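subagent[fold] <- orchestrator: predict structure for attached chain, return tokens only, no commentary.
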Amino acid sequence: MTRRVPGDAVLLWGIPTETTLSRVELSLRKLGAPVFVIDQRRIRDTALELESGAGIHGHLRFGPWFADLDTVRSFYMRPYDSRELPAVVNATNNKSLTDYALRTEELTSTWAEVTPALVVNRPSAMAANNSKPFQTAQAASIGFSVPETLVTTDPAAVKAFQNQHGEIVYKSISGVRSVVRTLTSEHDDRLHNVENCPTQFQRRIIGTNYRVHVVGSQAFACSITSKSTDYRYDSACRVEACILPRHIETMSINLTRKVGLEVSGLDLMKDLEGNWYCFEMNPSPGFTFFQDRSGQSVDAAIADLLASGRRSDSPPVTTDRALSPGQLAGQ
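subagent[fold] -> orchestrator:
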């Protein structure tokens, strides 16, 4: 027997047991919002159809449930790579189910791109995360300082960059998570490996780390104290809620709006001279690590945004003052 998803529903897509998604779902239910979760693992139970004509129309079937996508209020996306889902990996006919999962993922992303409903976040807006150098340029255009940066496959260029700037760090240039490490003499024997993988190198900035979660027109900031180059891998790091200078808060919101995101997680640092640097911006932030340590309610803010169904279409706010961006180099 077919059961209809309530009109004006908030759709969530991902793994229901994943902490970030489950926190948002719980917050939405506390608000009394009509919520429907599409469990990405149940790919065999999922069918989505789109029709084009005078606009894009579609519907979703999930098990016994039916949803008219034209009536959806908002959509929160936290999908995993469909090819890595247990139901796909362990399937007897793996290729057939993989193809179906990828087609379903593509259709879902297509609908998320064109629907008038609020989407957190649209695939086109999240695409900037695939290029860290591009993100750096966007941050500089808003007024953030950025570290001197080199993206290269030339070991000699790396050594020259290191000689020029002293202590430098390296990281992936893509959206794939990587550990930020300091380049030392211990890496000399392996430095030739950059010939096979374009790598981003930056002058190391010394200062205080900040994580800023932007949700619509709100900014939730935390300061992070850590002895590690990459605090994400420091279990002893200290996270505390803080208030940003007004112009830094405004710049954080403006950067999020500039790329078309409704929610973001910015990695900032205030150096010893008081300059504010932006290292990167996560378009699908797993905020629970910071929320659990700071006491902030990012999940509730996202739930409020989704329940409202209102997009952040207002123009960027003028900052109180601009910061001079650092040098952005390339080779």
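orchestrator: received. Logging for downstream: The CA atoms of residues 50 and 58 lie 4 Å apart. The chain has nine helices and 17 strands.
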